[in-house]
Amino acid sequence: MPEHDRRSARARFEHEFAAVRTAFAAGRLGLVDVVLISIPPLEVLRRHRDGDRSHGDFLDALVAAIPKPPH
């Protein structure tokens, strides 16, 4: 990821984190509203891995270990 994209992603995260923290403290959000788990498809993880080898093998192992929900 180019450095300017990393900086803008970080700035967006910090902005959204501050907004969520404020809403949480004011009681407008609860824990269920804040926690979100998303497990991207393996193809997406592999594309990310190919761009950043530092965590790719870990992500492959993690996805393989997570039980798949029934359809």
Relevant terms:
71 residues; flat; mainly alpha; 2 domains
Short description:
By secondary structure, this protein is mainly alpha-helical. The protein has four helices and no strands.
The count of domains is: 2
Order of helices and strands: HHHH
Please describe the biggest sheet, giving its number of strands, its sense, and whether it closes into a barrel. Answer: none
Unreliable parts: none
- What is the count of DSSP helices, taking H or I runs of 4+ residues? 4
Average pLDDT for all residues: 77
Structural overview:
By secondary structure, this protein is an all-alpha fold. It has two domains: 1-29; 37-71, no CATH class. The protein contains four helices and no strands. It has helices at residues 3-25, 31-34, 42-51, 56-65. Helix 3 runs antiparallel to helix 4 (56-65). The longest helix is centred in the first third of the chain and has 23 residues, at 3-25. The radius of gyration is 16 Å and the shape is flat. The model has no long low-confidence stretch (mean pLDDT 77).
